[in-house]
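Q: What structure does this chain adopt?
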Amino acid sequence: MAYVRFGRALAAIVMVTAGVGLGTPAMASGADPTEPTPGPCAYTPTPEEPAARPVGLPPDPRHTPSVGTVEVLLRTNLGQIPLVLDRAAAPCTVQSFLHLVRHRFYHRTVCHRLTAYPTLKVLQCGDPSGTGEGGPGYRYGDELPTGLPPAPTDPTGERRVYARGVLAMANAGPDTNGSQFFLVYADSALRPNYSIFGTVTPAGLATLDRVAAGGVAPTPEDPAPVDGAPALTTRFKTAHVRH
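A:
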């Protein structure tokens, strides 16, 4: 579950469209460290990809909550990013995300990737290692969106609009969701292969716009990149559920 593959996948999409582990996860008491949880979400340990921070497996009740919304607040060094999670859209994803928030998995982590392609504008976060390859020590299945409008920039009709304000999971291929997610700061064209599980509030978008305005950090190899670390380091101080 090397999340760097997500980056390559997105870069390839853009080229076509535009022409152009630190520790072993602490398992839940009594859980087999190699077996998926028995509920409908089947969170599956990834011993080959240890957790960047030990958190164990999320709860997996027989009846996963699938109604209502949950508010989460990401406090960053550049401002707040309030999120509204939608249980109906992706119940297993929301359940996992809340598990990670409650176990402080996202505390003191940086958003490692900003994209500024014409057809792809997202901020990617959720890896405590800061490398783009770290995860929570487990994976789970996709809960893919339906009904997204076709991307007008894609003549093939394969890509859909992930609209400004969308909150979605990053992945390394089918059914490899973990901890990394992306925040869409402008309408983007993607195949509908990424689970959407909530939205960014207007206050959060203001913070995202600030990050995006700073651009991508230049490197010796590329003084004007459109994909890489944000020039304005974006660090989560805390993440918590709002009551």
